[in-house]
Amino acid sequence: MRFHGFIFYLLWTFSLLARAQSTEFLALFNQGKTIYFQQCFVCHQMNGQGITNTYPPLAKSDFLSTDKKRSIRILCEGQTGPITVNGKQYDGTMPAMVLRDGEVAAVLTYVHNAWGNSNGIVTVNEVQEVRKQTAYPTYELLAAVNAYPPLPKPPAGFKLREVARLPMNGVRLASDGKGKNLFVLSGSGDVHRVEIATGQVRPVVFSRDYLVKNVGDQGGPVMVTGMTLDKEYRLYTVINQQNNATLPVQNFVTIYRSTEFNKVGDPVTMKPWFTTNYPGNSSYLHAAEHIGIGPDGYVYVSNGARTDGNESNGDTNYYQKGETEITACIWRLDPRHQPPMFEVYARGIRNVYGFTWSPLGEMFATENGPDAPAPEELNLIEQGKHYGFPYRFADWTKKAYAHTPEPPAGLEFTLPIPNMGPDGGFRGSPISSFDPHSCPGGIVWLGNDFPEAHRGTMLLTRFGNFIREPRDAGFDVLQIRLKKNSQALYEAGVHSFLAPLGRPIDIHQNGRGRVYILEYSRPTTPSLSYSMPGRIIELSVE
């Protein structure tokens, strides 16, 4: 009996230990999944398969399984130079991730045990031991390296001021144009109000309170980059989420609109206003990215390509036929109807992050190009026109890829506005429109509240390159001066206006000769981390 009792005691003890380990593993795994989709999936993709020839796969990765300590070191210190993963060579740069020891352990536990990997738990003690041997032996030192840089020198006649340092990575700015408050959107769908005079930041709405669980437990990551306010001071946000419950995997787009105001007048209580869906993609999903109110009162939404260049990815869980009728285009919605009337306004647009209108009602949009080194674009968007994707990029007449499809017979393309220099990618001859991979983002039109020399120009942000190039591109604000050539087509004089900046992602006017620039993060080159949140900078007339 004593022997049997002892055996029972051992089994009971082992069961408790296994349960404790299982609880620890699940907690780390779930925390790590959240961090992965906040910080990592843009490069390594939702299913960890990476991007061919650019970012190495994490799924079923021999690089991971053979050396756990190496994966810890890369997160804590970064990685530059050639590596071989699953028999293929990659030569890029991964910045150090500014994560605390517990966060590193969590995200690596997720990565080491997702998508066919089964490499066990990564503990906080393991992270601490490896971090001590890196160039940044403490989290505090790494964070210090990623400190906020000094403000750049403002252009003549302007001054710069730091308005607020943000508690999260902001992706979009909006306001009522009256100069008192800004609203900043995070990638998770949370919205904070920023008091311009004091820099006070406080939450207004949380995505957890309004996000409809269209996809239940089968949901992929939430992707949010669209926000605006209308003339009635109603707040709009655009939410993308993949549904893995039915095949092929679907991407759900929901536009939410506020229905109430709180005691201080902020728009709150977000409700679904419009929803649609189309096939998702595990490698690329630029999705619905920007929303704005046009001078005609219509709501415009840029919905990006679901592919890099109309390719299939070989995963039968996903749709294999490239773009659909409502991807790679700009939508227009009539808010006078409920539900709003929907139409496709323009097509052939890969990935618009920002658009604005001139006083004449002309719509101008920035566009991010493919992994192939085609120029990023600035386009005059006109109803019914086609801007080339996926048949051509910028002004290229050659195919970007072997899989680039032939255009339908008779389809006419509208070319980007040529950059006539001297900056933004100009190298002695025009380029259509900016450096490859410089990631043009938000864009604004400067009106009569600015000095005469700057009226009628546009300012646009460039987030900065992800893909390694011989030179860093972006991390700045460009000024665009338009004029028409002998064919009555626009050409752009492009001047560097403000640099360097920490991955500027959006730019917004808020009246009285003031422009607000949203820095996504702090470092001003791709060699450092972009996980630390950025700030809001005010550019105003002296």
Helix fraction by DSSP (H/I, runs of at least 4): 10-25%
Cα(first) to Cα(last) distance is 90 Å
The strands making up the biggest β-sheet line up spatially as: 19-23-22-21-20
**Largest beta-sheet details:** 5 strands, mixed
Derived structural class: alpha+beta
Radius of gyration: 24 Å
Q: What is the 3D form?
A: globular
List the domain count as a whole number: 3
What is the mean pLDDT?
89
Q: How many E strands?
A: 26
How many distinct helices? Answer: 8
Q: Quote the beta fraction.
A: 25-35%
- Uncertain segments of ≥5 residues (pLDDT<50)? none
Features:
alpha+beta; Cytochrome Bc1 Complex, Chain D, domain 2; five-stranded mixed β-sheet; four-stranded antiparallel β-sheet; 8 helices
Secondary-structure blueprint of this entry?
Layout: H1 2-39, H2 41-44, H3 62-65, H4 68-77, E1 79-85, E2 88-94, H5 101-111, H6 124-131, H7 139-145, E3 158-165, E4 170-174, E5 181-186, E6 191-195, E7 201-205, H8 207-210, E8 219-229, E9 235-243, E10 250-261, E11 267-279, E12 288-293, E13 299-303, E14 329-334, E15 341-347, E16 355-357, E17 363-367, E18 377-381, E19 419-422, E20 440-445, E21 458-462, E22 476-484, E23 490-498, E24 504-509, E25 514-519, E26 535-541
Question: How does this structure look, described?
Answer:
The chain is an alpha+beta fold. The protein has three domains: 2-144, Cytochrome Bc1 Complex, Chain D, domain 2 (Orthogonal Bundle), CATH 1.10.760.10; 218-347; 353-385 and 415-542, no CATH class. Helices cover 16% and strands 33% of the residues. A hairpin with a 5-residue loop joins strand 22 (476-484) and strand 23 (490-498). The radius of gyration is 24 Å and the shape is globular.
